[in-house]
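Lay summary. Proteins are chains of building blocks that fold into shapes, and those shapes determine what they do. In this project we predict the shape from the chain. Here is one chain we studied, written as its sequence of building blocks.
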Amino acid sequence: MIDKVIYSTQNTEYLSIEIAQILNIPFGKINWVQFEDEEFEIQICDRLAPINKHIIIIGSAENLRYYADLADLVSTFKQQYRANIVDVIVPYIGYSTAERSKPNSGICPRGIYRVQSLFDTMPRKITFFDLHADGIINVGGRNGISDHIYSEPLVIQIINKIKQENKELILVSPDAGRGKWVKALAYKTELPHDIMSKDRYGIDKVKLGSASSKVKDKVAIIFDDMIRSGNTAIKAAEQILDAGAKEVRMIASHAILPKTVTVDAEKRMHESVISKIYVTNSHSRSQTLTSPKFEVRSIAAILANSIC
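And here is the predicted shape, written in a compact code that computers can read:
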């Protein structure tokens, strides 16, 4: 059996170390040396360890830098260190507004091109977690094998915990795109569900249809793949309460929640009508959340099960 070693991009070390501990696999150390121009040099500390090994690289591609780091690591281990196998696990992919090519739109489908550049490094397999656009897994074509794993076991666990506290629950999708996921979850958890309509215009601007009377006198649980600005979640929660719900909670796979000079999405969610927010640790932002409304759940066990 070929020895396995786990390596990580700089932003995902907290999750990679946990996976390595679960599987009792060595975690390989990398030094990330930053220059004055903000470029990084990658230094593999245990230089002989990768040779003839099965290398597992874990990294959330939160922006262009981390896409590049993933691609650089695959190429380094394959070409310089002659690793027998290189697999990649991507807990989160940073999305542009276009994950698919739209003819004559003038929009660059950056999601496609970024993932293609990662497949072009020729890893054996790339495993994605809770993709926003399922079509991403087909980008690699002949250049690699992709896999898509879901947060469903963890989400069902959270829902069952909430069921112990509240008898009258309903699952809600804030838009039709996530509706099939919510419908499947409703079936598996034996709960009713509702699907809202959403139209997007401009950047991070949405218009939501009203919630139905199904939510009246119930504790509503919104499920979505990510919380970015929080606009959709907050507007959905307000509509749900207007329709007579007693309380609104939320479950999301990816906690993006940007914090900049002009935007503090965590604060916005904290001050919203949503009473509790469950997120995973797929994104590094999950490690800096301070609002007591947030409960962070680890996906380390789910990702560990995908490693073979």
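What the prediction tells us: The helical segments are 13-23, 64-80, 110-119, 152-165, 179-189, 231-242, 265-270, 300-304.
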